Structure to design on (717 residues):
């Protein structure tokens, strides 16, 4: 029995900020202090507060240490673990209030969160099946196999109101019932873990922090539809997730929770991993299944839907990681528990990956219906450097930008669609006044052009032409006719593309045109980028009255475009200037301006 | 593993092992003074006795924690028990044997052991 447990985040965010080194030091120091028998160290999944990594929590006190370094670890071991004195100056500052240490749940970041899909992330050791079991792991599978019929399982999922968390929001129970109704000698359960939206990482976090939940949920789905084989399609760019999933599958097999005759019920289920090679289009369900079959990952028209003809032309259920992560809890707590959270048509919680111009970058899970303002201003801690909020981009390359006028919108599937964006997988990129909306639209289009598989013409050529128009506008070569032309082209791409990639690719353009048309017009008519981003429309100039002639900028300029003598105002040669901004950063007198 | 009963038995066993990782504000807190004075007087075996005994009896509502010097070094090892809504009880000159008694009498049966408290020493 250990008297104290130290949990260190081993998610990708904290790993890249050095948490492995922290763990190594921690174990060494604990050993040297003779505490190895008393203090247990656990490497967990993501806590969500990636901006403060590496993160370390000491229980039973619940002391939340942020930005840990090996030196800090020594101090915590000597003071906190050995002598029981919490090292206040190393705690996450939000948890320290006037000599009193607040519980983590009371900080702004966690207070409004409700963790269902992420409940075990940052709590258990993902590489140890016993920890998952201690937190009621595999109980839902046991309940399903011993007490429920497949029809009852599907009914509970249907009644819960759970909808697909991958973006489209299709009712999960309905999807399962279609696959269950189709008779076949073989059926499959598959998981879409090919999280490709730039900025979204909730699926990775579940795989890394709680891999067994996926195994349990897929086995439940297999029982519900009559499948005994599962496939997880996970991107190869997630090495930690792949590794932990492999360990988890191995442990589940060893304990008889995967394989033949699970828990003596006569139900067989096993699963395999398939690694994606990094194509965004493979997140589309038909392309994903084609790729699982070993063929080139290209989409095909639907129908037939996967529930009729999926992997190897057999009925298949394909759900996203976050969707599955909700399933065991719904089985254990009941449909009413789940549908008591959220809005009328969107039940439960949703995980968002907060990124961009926001103080608390990381993962947050909130009940559906939480307003955008609550997420950004309260949980996210607002915009850094006192800048003004301009827009939030949700849904990645398929979504749109939500302007400040819609900050009080209650976020759910239908409300987001109504204002021209979408839930998507839950990426949320916050933008301030320094972001150019035309440039943002161009960024996402560049992504879809790159990732279009090329099978259908509207997507392959349409997105390319759309990108070219945007590119012209950002270079000051656009005309006013470009705006209706773009709208028309967007319409055709949406209507005629084969799969979801093309059908949603114009959304970033359409939503920025809807809310920020004035920025497009400024680029076209005034040849001006209001946010000061588009380089071709900018010029850097030195204000002679402010310049002290310190020569710092001319030394910093990488192309030697700045000339002048000491103590005399300098001048920028516009022909040589590459608009890198190095001079602005170096100037101590704010004498250089962007125009 | 061949049955649900087996799985549930394993869960209960593991639950006791993982310890507390949640907000525990409603719990009874047993706080052991673990400053230099406490450690020198033998607080460590006392702390170990509390954690073991609490785990053995699977007392989910008890948190065993440590703290620094309370200021009465001559009475170390000092242990304080905080029950929500009740006055704290301070035990002094603790030993592992006394710890076992406190767990059974005070934590389980709700009767503080008066003879181990500071007032009994006078």
């Amino acid at each position: 029995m250990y008297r104290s447990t130290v949990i260190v985040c081993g998610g990708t965010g904290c790993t890249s900020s050095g948490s492995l080194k922290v763990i190594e030091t921690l174990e060494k120091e604990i050993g040297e202090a003779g505490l190895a028998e008393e203090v247990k160290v656990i490497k967990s999944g993501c806590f969500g507060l990636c901006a403060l990594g590496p993160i370390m929590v000491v229980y039973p006190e619940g002391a939340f240490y942020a930005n840990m370094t090996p030196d800090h670890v020594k101090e915590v071991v000597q003071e906190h673990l050995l002598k029981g004195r919490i090292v206040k100056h190393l705690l996450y500052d939000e948890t320290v209030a006037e000599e009193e240490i607040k519980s983590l749940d009371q900080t702004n970041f966690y207070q409004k969160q409700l963790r269902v899909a992420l409940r075990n992330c940052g709590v258990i050791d993902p590489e140890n099946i016993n920890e998952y079991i201690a937190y009621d792991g595999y109980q839902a599978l046991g309940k399903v196999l011993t007490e429920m019929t497949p029809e009852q399982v599907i009914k509970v999922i249907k009644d819960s109101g759970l909808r697909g968390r991958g973006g489209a929001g299709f009712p999960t129970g309905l999807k399962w019932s279609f696959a269950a109704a189709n008779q076949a000698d073989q059926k499959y359960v598959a998981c879409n873990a090919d999280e490709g939206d730039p900025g979204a990482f909730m699926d990775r976090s579940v795989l890394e922090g709680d891999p067994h939940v996926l195994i349990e949920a897929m086995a439940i789905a297999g029982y519900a539809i009559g499948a005994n084989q599962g496939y997880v399609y996970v991107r190869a760019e997630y090495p930690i997730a792949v590794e932990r999933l492999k360990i988890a599958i191995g442990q589940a097999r060893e304990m008889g929770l995967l394989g033949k005759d699970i828990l003596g019920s006569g139900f067989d289920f096993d699963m395999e991993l398939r690694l994606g090679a990094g194509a965004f289009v493979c997140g589309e369900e038909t392309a994903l299944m084609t790729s699982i079959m070993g063929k080139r990952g290209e989409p095909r028209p639907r129908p037939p839907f996967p529930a009729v003809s999926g992997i190897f032309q057999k009925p298949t259920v394909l759900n996203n990681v976050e969707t599955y992560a909700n399933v065991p809890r719904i089985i254990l707590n009941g449909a009413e528990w789940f549908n008591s959270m959220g809005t009328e048509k969107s039940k439960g919680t949703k995980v968002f990956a907060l990124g961009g111009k926001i103080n608390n970058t990381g993962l947050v899970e909130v009940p559906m219906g939480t307003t955008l303002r609550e997420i950004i201003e309260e949980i996210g801690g607002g915009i850094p450097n006192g800048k003004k909020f301009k827009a939030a981009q949700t849904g990645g390359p398929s979504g749109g930008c939500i302007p400040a006028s819609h900050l009080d919108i209650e976020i759910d599937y239908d409300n987001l669609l109504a204002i021209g964006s979408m839930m998507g997988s839950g990426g949320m990129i916050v933008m301030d006044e320094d972001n150019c909306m035309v440039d943002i639209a161009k960024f996402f289009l560049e992504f879809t052009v790159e990732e279009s598989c090329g099978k259908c013409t509207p997507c392959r050529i349409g997105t390319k032409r759309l990108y070219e128009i945007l590119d012209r506008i950002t270079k000051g070569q656009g005309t006013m006719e470009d705006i209706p032309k773009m709208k028309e082209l967007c319409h055709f791409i949406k209507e005629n593309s084969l799969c979801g990639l093309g059908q949603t690719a114009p959304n970033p353009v359409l939503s920025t045109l809807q809310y920020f048309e004035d920025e497009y017009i400024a680029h076209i008519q005034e040849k001006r980028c209001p946010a000061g981003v588009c380089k071709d429309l900018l010029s850097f100039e030195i204000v002679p009255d402010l310049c002290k002639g310190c020569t710092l900028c001319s030394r910093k300029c990488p192309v030697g475009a700045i000339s002048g003598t000491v103590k005399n105002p300098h001048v920028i040669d516009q022909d040589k200037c590459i608009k890198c901004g190095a001079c602005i950063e170096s100037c101590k007198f704010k004498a250089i301006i962007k125009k | 593993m061949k049955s649900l009963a087996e799985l549930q038995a394993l869960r209960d066993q593991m639950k006791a092992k993982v310890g507390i990782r949640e907000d525990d504000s409603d719990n009874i807190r047993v706080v052991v003074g673990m400053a230099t004075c406490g450690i020198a007087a033998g607080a460590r075996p006392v702390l170990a006795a509390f954690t073991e005994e609490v785990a053995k009896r699977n007392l989910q509502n008890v948190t065993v924690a440590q703290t620094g010097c309370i200021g009465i070094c001559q009475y170390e090892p000092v242990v304080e028990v905080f029950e929500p809504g009740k006055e704290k009880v301070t035990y002094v000159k603790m030993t592992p044997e006394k710890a076992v008694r406190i767990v059974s009498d005070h934590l389980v049966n709700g009767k503080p052991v008066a003879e181990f408290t500071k007032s009994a020493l006078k």
